[in-house]
Amino acid sequence: MQMLKVILMVIALAIPTLGHAAQKWQLFSPPPNQATLNSGEVKVITGDHYRFHVLKDKGGYTATIIESALGSMLVDTGTGKNPQFGEDINTYLTLIGKPVSAIVTHEHSDHYGNLDKIDNIEVIYAEAYVAADLNQSGEFHAITKMPVTALKGKASLYGLIYDFHTIDNAETDHNSYFAIESAKGLFVGDLLYVDAYNYIREYTPLDDTDELTNWIETLQELKLKYSEYDYVFVGHNGYSDNIQALADQNIHYLAIAQALIKGKQPLPNGKKATNVTEVVAEMFRLFPNYKGKGLGFALPGSFGVQDPGAKWF
């Protein structure tokens, strides 16, 4: 009789666990096969009420899908110069089989360039300042005619609470980031890069605004504010499970770039850099294993034959 009581107690204790597992199964079917993404790779992170799908193309451009019980939220799309990646994202979302909306983290086209490849987007969201930029952008509306819905602070989207913020004058005029506290996930767009060359073309050290100082100070704040978060998702080269280490890595990169541009760190020949090409070459030398094209966009000619390059000197 005593043994029967023990068995019944074990069964009773197991029922909530089994029920939780069944609920999780109902929320999330098996994720689409890796082979769906012909143009890159996928990493899937599953929690009890959320699932993150990190899709990265072969150039490191990254789109993340936040899946909940009620829908799929696509965060950025990668560059439209790789339309196959956009088509693969669309196929992947179709296989998930839930309603789809999108978030664009900032105005650079490599973060919205494949929106026209995504079918049946319900809403395009962005933080309020970013939304204003996008709604006034001819380049953006050449890709999609949909208006961008502005968000600020906390918003419930597909059953998850998002908390939106923006930073002025860092990587670009307005960089947004948002947190999902219940999932311990932070989404930062291009404020952080994972082993990839930060885009610093818009740095303007000759005027009164020091974007790299603003950027570094922002990263110092983020790594403290979100130190207990489990994941940070970026626009280039995937994601990280260590926000503090990633922030320190990016701060190191940005501080060196700033020192080279301002003449506080010499080139290998002992002289100060006097032009953009010298700075870019030295950064490539110091960070030889980084990926992506972000740094090179500072060079003259990056955006056409008349492009003078970054205004650093």
Can you offer a commentary on this structure?
By secondary structure, the chain is an alpha/beta fold. It has a single domain, classed as 4-Layer Sandwich (Metallo-beta-lactamase, Chain A), CATH 3.60.15. Helices cover 31% and strands 23% of the residues. The protein is built from seven helices and 13 strands. The chain has helices spanning 2-27, 83-96, 128-135, 138-141, 211-225, 243-262, 276-286; strands spanning 40-46, 51-57, 62-67, 72-75, 100-103, 121-127, 148-151, 153-157, 160-168, 174-180, 185-189, 231-234, 239-240. The strands form two sheets. A seven-stranded mixed beta sheet has the order 1-2-3-4-5-6-7. Strands 8-9-10-11-12-13 form a six-stranded mixed beta sheet. A hairpin with a 4-residue loop joins strand 3 (62-67) and strand 4. The radius of gyration is 22 Å and the shape is globular. Mean pLDDT is 93; it is low at 3-25. It holds the Pfam family Lactamase_B.
